[in-house]
Amino acid sequence: MNVLHIDSGILGDHSVSRRLTAALVTQIKADRPDAKVTYRDLVSERLPHLTGAQIMAPADLNGVDPALASDIRVGRQMLEEFLAADTIVVGAPMYNFSIPSQLKAWIDRLAVAGKTFRYTEAGPEGLAKGKRVIVASTRGGHYSAGPASAMDHQESYLRTIFGFFGITDVEFVRAEGLNLGADQKQFAIAEAEKTIAEGNVLRLAS
């Protein structure tokens, strides 16, 4: 089985989402020692945001500006990693009610017509069916329910975009209220790690 491990938290060792994705991957490896893990740190790799030049570039990159060609090749490699993965573990902290721009840049490299989706007479069809996505979702406040749920453009976006790619098996491991005091932060992390340790989100296909 192939596992793709994605981190996008900008706080380094202080990042709770990174802590949770590491725990998820460790648990997966414990359950499936044969799992092959590919890791991408979207912060340290500094993936450029999508540009018109990238979209308009020809499939054959011969003669294309070397810097642009190199960037396109990286994006294509990330797409192939995604397509090859059976399970994708994504660290997605909430920044300003949405996802990190680094994570959005990665998703923009995945949204390629003919690869992860296509348009048909009946409407769009996802082409990445059969995959499983586990998102480590971290939030400073509480957005799962109540009035603040209307401000959640993080989990709702991720569920929508992966669904657009044809992925219906999307799970969230949540640590909420991380900015509401030390006790709440410790409790939220402990509860998320307990969920992971108990295997409640790791119903992995054989």
UniProtKB/TrEMBL annotation:
It holds the Pfam family Flavodoxin_2. Binds 1 FMN per subunit. Signal peptide: none annotated. Its EC number is 1.6.5.-, 1.7.1.17. Keywords: Flavoprotein, FMN, NAD, Oxidoreductase. It catalyses: N,N-dimethyl-1,4-phenylenediamine + anthranilate + 2 NAD(+) = 2-(4-dimethylaminophenyl)diazenylbenzoate + 2 NADH + 2 H(+); 2 a quinone + NADH + H(+) = 2 a 1,4-benzosemiquinone + NAD(+). Its cofactor is FMN. Residues 1-197 form the Flavodoxin-like fold domain. Transmembrane segments: none annotated. FMN binds at S15, V16, S17, M94, Y95, N96, F97, T138, R139, G140, G141. It is an enzyme of class 1 (oxidoreductase). Also exhibits azoreductase activity. Catalyzes the reductive cleavage of the azo bond in aromatic azo compounds to the corresponding amines. Quinone reductase that provides resistance to thiol-specific stress caused by electrophilic quinones. HAMAP family: Azoreductase_type1. Belongs to the azoreductase type 1 family. This is FMN dependent NADH:quinone oxidoreductase. It comes from Sinorhizobium glycinis.
